[in-house]
Amino acid sequence: MNVAVAKTGKGRAVSDLFTSAEGRLPGSPAVTAVRREAFETYERLGLPHRRLEEWKYTDLRALVGEVLPLAASPDAATLKRAADAVKVHAIDGARKLVLVDGVFAADLSDVKALVAEAGFKTLRETLDKDAGLLKTASIDAMIALNAAMATDGVVLSIADGAKLSAPIQIIHIATAASASAFTRSQVAVGKGARATIVETFVAAGAKAYQVNDAVLVSVGDDSDVAHIRLMDDAPDAVNVTSQFVTIGANVKFNFFNMTTGAAVSRLQGFIALAGEGSELSANGVNLLKKTEHGDTTLVVDHAVPNCVSREIFRAVVDDRGHSVFQGRIIVRPDAQKTDGKMMTRALLLSDEAEADNKPELEIFADDVSCGHGATAGALDDSLLFYLKARGLPEKQAQALLIQAFVGEAIEQIADDGLREHVIGVAERWLERRQ
Amino acid sequence: MHHLNKLDTKMALLEVKDLKVRVEEREILHGLTLTVNEGEIHAIMGPNGSGKSTLSHVIAGKPGYEVTDGQILFKGEDLLEMEPNERAAKGVFLAFQYPVEIPGVATMNFLRTALNAQRKARGEDEYSTPDFLKKVREVSKSLNIPQDMLKRGVNVGFSGGEKKRNEVLQMALFEPSLCILDEMDSGLDIDALRIAADGVNALRSPKRSMVVITHYQRLLNYIVPDVVHVMSKGRVVKSGGKELALELEASGYAQFEDAA
Ligand SMILES: Nc1ncnc2c1ncn2[C@@H]1O[C@H](COP(=O)(O)OP(=O)(O)OP(=O)(O)O)[C@@H](O)[C@H]1O
Ligand SMILES: [Mg+2]
């Protein structure tokens, strides 16, 4: 080949990333072919950069530089560390599915209790015969890279009419320093079902690691699904997660993401309302400090008439943090009577904190009610003074106002127990500030 | 000398000495002097814009005011060196003329957090939840504040009168040694005024002093002051006994304008 070898910042050839990992990537020869093709796409595109409209505010070339090599498979010592982390981050009563450095850890998971109510496989198992899960209709470099490199994930199917008695919590744990984990999962919910999925990203001692995760969710008609994500990574980590959701008719889908860590993070969600009469509530919170960069990008696609979508996003940015919210609502020509609203607010706790808000409406139908709003500002001095005059020290007064501010998004979580859990994670972030 | 002689033997709780304060380059207080002894009730009256709220804000530590001269001592300590929360923990309480609304911060949570922050700063144990709830229930009942109001955000959707009663509730909970009431009577109907004033009177004690800022003699019928001060153009221009308030009610402030 007469093409110059693309080099990463540290002189490693980009293709080494794949060739050095290939022997460890699960799948049949057909799957390997799909992976190779996906990697070629990634090689051609390279890390996303600011000249791409979708990545304008999150220039991974500048922020990340290079993709780190694949993490080693977990051994007994790392699994022990992961087990300790699971204890800290597990939600009471939830069925846990644990991925350690991108590999499913059966011993740390509640597979037995889960399979009584839902179908479960690992990604590794499905790739023995089928490359389907690696295919996504997207030309995003990070998603292509995920398809090429995904080592494992969870594949869940929830049958028609099944009402899960407990939340399923997928816990991603990083234990390997200076390495990458690639995971891809699927959640297929049947008709008239009820399920709650929680995803938690945390570190167990790992530093400077990278996560690239993809989740494919489909929700059948008349179902009620909550999907809550907590990106609570180590302060020097990188986490790019892509989420695809397709929603049937008369569905209630309650989505929430909170970012409380990572040097660089991005959640890119693509949510398609494909059946009439559905209600989407998609909300998020970024809590950022130091030089953290947190990007929440949500595309809500109204493909059919009579759906409602609501987005509430709150960013709290301290020090030299940088929050990005990109929200796009697309209303296709057929999607009459769409009711779509999005409201994003940023709270800047320091003069150097930055928040970029890019709400966009792309409306191709004429009988719709859509709107968006965005604000950014500091804490209200008169409220701060009132609290201080009542005895609260500065940081505690701020914490109370910050909690109230993010509360507007968190209170959209319908389940009391989960809401309390999320509030707890936010409170820990606030305590670290004090 | 505007001190009443019989009070001079008491301990001074608050001493404001020749205080000069600027807001945005404009001097608002031009050398104000005021001493409040332990256990006394002082009333401050004076026309709109004479600087009454400014004085109360500077005592509480509100940012945005530049003290260019003078001193404020509280129990002999330099108040101007302290953060607002330190002043609160030491026993300074300002019932605001315009209490702010704080959406998303439940009143109960706020009350508990504030009370415990003050106690912690003083090295006291935090209140247990049952003790705290009992105390809030007692005080709110005596002030005719319904329990469901306490579940709402601080002052959110409260009527003007309810906001003022919420200030008195906090005063009763925090048990400060200096209470400054900035126009507690404005926006209160006659019954609410009586209830709030009863609440304030219940807090009278030989160790607690109050500074009651008002435009109306009526409040002083309920909360009877030991000393009445007239403020005009950023100074105390006259001090006297409670009869001074009646005099003002009859003749207005015009006589003091020149003195200022
Ligand atoms: N933040 C500010 N910026 C500019 N001027 C101010 C500010 N706060 C107060 N002032 C001015 O200072 C003067 C005194 O105001 P202050 O509120 O202390 O008066 P007051 O005696 O409490 O009046 P009222 O009886 O109407 O409550 C007024 O002329 C007011 O306009
Ligand atoms: Mg005033």
Automatic annotation (TrEMBL), chain A:
Protein name: Fe-S cluster assembly protein SufD
Domain SUF system FeS cluster assembly SufBD core: 173-405
Signal sequence annotation: none
SUF system FeS cluster assembly SufBD N-terminal domain: residues covered: 28-170
InterPro entries: Fe-S_cluster_assembly_SufBD, SUF_FeS_clus_asmbl_SufBD_core, SUF_FeS_clus_asmbl_SufBD_sf, SUF_FeS_clus_asmbl_SufD, SufBD_N
Organism: Bradyrhizobium nanningense
One GO term (biological process): iron-sulfur cluster assembly
A Pfam family per the record: SufBD_N
NCBIfam families: sufD
Family under the similarity heading: Belongs to the iron-sulfur cluster assembly SufBD family.
